[in-house]
Amino acid sequence: MLLPFQRGPFRGRTSVSLTLISRFVEEYRSSTPNKLKVIDAYLLYILLTGVFQFLYCVLVGTFPFNSFLSGFIACVGSFILAVCLRIQINPQNKRDFLTVSPERAFADFLFAHTVLHLVVVNFVG
Amino acid sequence: MAHLCLFSLLVLSMVLETQALTPTHHLTTTDVARLQAVLSQPFTDLKSAYYSVVGLSKLGILVADADETCQFIKSNLDPSSVESLFYAAEASQALSGCEIPVSNDTRDLLLATVSEDSTASQIHQSVSALSSLGLPLASQEVVSALKARISKEDNVLTIILALQTASRLSQQAELGDILEEIEDLAARLDDLSGVYLQFEEGLETTALFVSAAYALSDHVDMEPPLKEDQVIQLVNSIFSKKSWDSLSEAFSVASAAESLSNNRFHVPVIVSAQGPAAISHSQPFLRLQVTDVLCQPLSSASVLVESASTSSSKSAILSQAPFTLRDEVFELNFMASQPASGYYQFSVAIAGDSRFVANHVELKVKVSTRVAINNMDLSVVDKDQSTGPKTTRVEYPTKAKAPFMADSHQNFAMAFQLVDETTGVELTPHQTFVRLHNQKTGQEVVFVAEPDSKNLYKFELDTTERKTEFDSISGTYALYLMMGDATLENPILWNVADVVLKFLDEEAPSTIQAKTLYTPKPEIQHLFREPEKKPPTVVSNAFTALVLSPFLLLLILWVKLGANISNFTLSPSTFLFHIGHAAMLGLMYVYWTHLNMFQTMKYLAIIGSLTFLAGNRMLAQKAVKRIAAEQSSRLAKYRSLR
Fold first, then answer.
1. Is the Cβ of A65 closer than 8 Å to some Cβ of chain B?
2. Which residues of B touch A124 (CB under 8 A)?
3. pLDDT digits (tens, 9 = 90+) for B581-618
4. Would the CB atoms of B604 and A114 count as touching at under 8 Å?
5. Domains and their CATH numbers in chain B
6. CB distance A34–B615 less than 8 Å?
7. Domain Ribophorin II C-terminal spans what residues (chain B) (predicted)?
8. Contact B558 A38 (CB under 8 A)
9. B507 neighbors B529 (Cβ within 8 angstroms)
10. In chain B, what residues touch A107 (CB-CB under 8 Å)?
11. For position A4, what pLDDT does the model report?
């Protein structure tokens, strides 16, 4: 028997998730510093590039396979490096990265990218 | 530990001794004849006359024209040369009734040569000449001169000459020291893989050593310190060469052969089978020739078979059976003991003289026989065995009258027995084949007939099973039985019958082509790897645009977020950093289009290090600014809180 103030179990799953999403977006907009938002935009760009490359492969074919691989790996690698940079720059994580300053994180990011580019360009053919 | 060493040494020596050596090389009668021919060549000077005359006398052959030879020697003699006197004296000694006139000067010359200052060869020649000419000599002086010579020159030839010289001296002289030299010399012989024993100086030296050692040993009547195996190894070395380079080499071999057949201590025995060592019913006697090294038969010997056993079972068929001597050949009727066919290991002992060396011989004897085929039954059997088999018996060497038919429902079978003609014992020869020959196409197929446990041979032909061997060609095949073995005297090729085979799925009979191995083969066209199909350019271009589109999105988002370059500090390190970074990206593009990894690494190292230094500077400046900003903000917050 349902009491007046209790909510039933199937009270619209979709609306619960919608509330969750809107709450999340609101939090993101307000509390994330601008620097991190810039990096997030970059991450989205990388993600989309990777997705479109994969789409091409699925639709048209894997020729030439090495080029596809190198492009895809470039996207994946860049995404990972950017995520690392974001983690290291985030002021909320300062306690975990006492020895790594944001500048140092950026320098590491650049160096890792150089290596990644070298490998990708070697493989793209 | 020492006991173990000693024990193992004892066991080893016992093992070595039980494996008595037998000569692997010896002179045959043709070799002896050849040696004689070499020594009988007409001589040109005194030296070759010496070698010929004395060499032939060692072989027991007298020179023809003894008088003429004597004249030749006398006319070529030079009384002022010791060497010439030596040759003349020795040669004349070998000829009967040849006397060399000797003057006092000659004698004095010869006696004067016997001193420490002369070479061993000179001493040997003068002593031999004196002895052959019947002139007196002082043995003790010779001995001391020889001993002095040996101590000065320790080479092998000197000692051999000393031994030869000592054998011409009086028995009262003290020859003990020189006798000991035999043992020392024997130790210097080189053992080649346990078969040969020779001096490194060569065959001639080894042969001269043998004759000198035995001459001296006979002279003093003391057994030379040479073991039986060593004597046999010396025999192998000396008689392994069957044609001789020089007269002196032939002479040394002849004198070694003479001393080995005539001395008082060791006489090597050569045992050889006359012809192949094979016995059969037509030839039941095993014949052996027992000779000394000069191929002279040893009639005083008694030859005995100690044991004769089959190579596989080692059970003795014969034991202690004597050979009988007939015409200088020892023979034994082995077939009398009715041996089964096969190979037998004979152990033969030669007795009769205590001087015999290598008188235990192992021989391999083959006993062959004739084979007979019994109970050859040919039959055609139905596969489903609805009707009984029709068997036809065929007698060797006739052929079956009617041909046999076999098609896919029937099997053709053959059974027979192979027995020894005389004893009736079942035989299993090495090769028993059944050959089917198609007369029209010339094709032949060979099968092996195998015996079962009762030694009955069976052969079955299943037409369906075997059709690949026949290429499914039906027709009349002539059936042959082929049989052979090393111990069979009558190998058999017997056309037993004709068989008509019918195969299912017959292909058109093609004549068998000779294998075209050496004609050019058909050319192989190389197929290059075809390039993969590329999608149409429109599609590729469209997708390229699609992939590049997120970049626009990025720029839009960045503008919306308010990303700016307001913090751009105008310092040289900043400029340098950005330029360097742009250069690195440019280098990546150039790498993609023109360069290889090594060149890129080189450029990257240069640009990278510049960029790194500039970037380091720039980021350090930025860090300083940031920390200063943080500190000031913290200070402001603190102040506002207060």
1. no
2. 592
3. 999 999 999 998 888 889 989 999 999 999 999 988 88
4. yes
5. 29-265 (1.50.10), 270-367 (2.60.40), 371-501 (2.60.40), 537-636 (no CATH)
6. no
7. 528-626
8. yes
9. no
10. 615-616, 619
11. 53
B88 has a pLDDT exceeding 50:
yes
Strand ranges (E), B421-491: 431-438, 444-448, 450-451, 456-462, 475-484
* ipTM score: 0.80
Ranges of beta strands (E only) in B225-359 are 267-268, 270-273, 278-279, 285-291, 302-310, 316-322, 324-326, 329-333, 342-351, 356-357
Minimal C-alpha gap between B633 and chain A (Å): 15
| Arithmetic mean of pLDDT, B305-333 | 81
A48 contacts chain B (CB < 8 A): yes
* Minimal CA separation from B472 to chain A, in Å: 52
Residue B3: the pLDDT is 60
Q: Are B228 and B271 in contact (CB under 8 A)?
A: no
Interface membership of A17 toward B (CB under 8 Å): no
Q: What does pTM read for this prediction?
A: 0.58
Q: Is A106 on the interface with B (CB under 8 A)?
A: yes
Say if the Cβ atoms of B619 and A124 lie within 8 Å: no
Residue in A41, A107, A124 nearest the CB of B592? A124
**Among all residues of chain B, which has the CA nearest to that of A48?**
B550
- How many contacts (CB atoms, under 8 Å) link A and B? 81
Residue B272 has, within 13 A of its CA and on its CB side, a CA count of 17
On whether the CB atoms of residues B193 and B158 are closer than 8 A, the answer is no
- Chain A: give the shortest CA distance to residue B636, in Å: 19
Query: CA-to-CA distance for B28 and B207, rounded, in angstroms?
Result: 18
Q: What is the DSSP letter of B62?
A: P
pLDDT tens for residues B213-267? 999 998 888 888 888 888 999 999 999 988 888 899 999 999 999 998 888 888 8
pLDDT in tens, B113-167: 888 888 888 888 888 888 888 888 888 888 888 888 888 888 889 899 988 888 8
pLDDT of residue B14: 46
Per-residue pLDDT at B508: 52
Q: Quote the pLDDT of residue A10.
A: 55
Quote the distance between the C-alpha of residue B334 and its chain's center.
33
- Count CB-CB contacts under 10 A for residue B351: 12
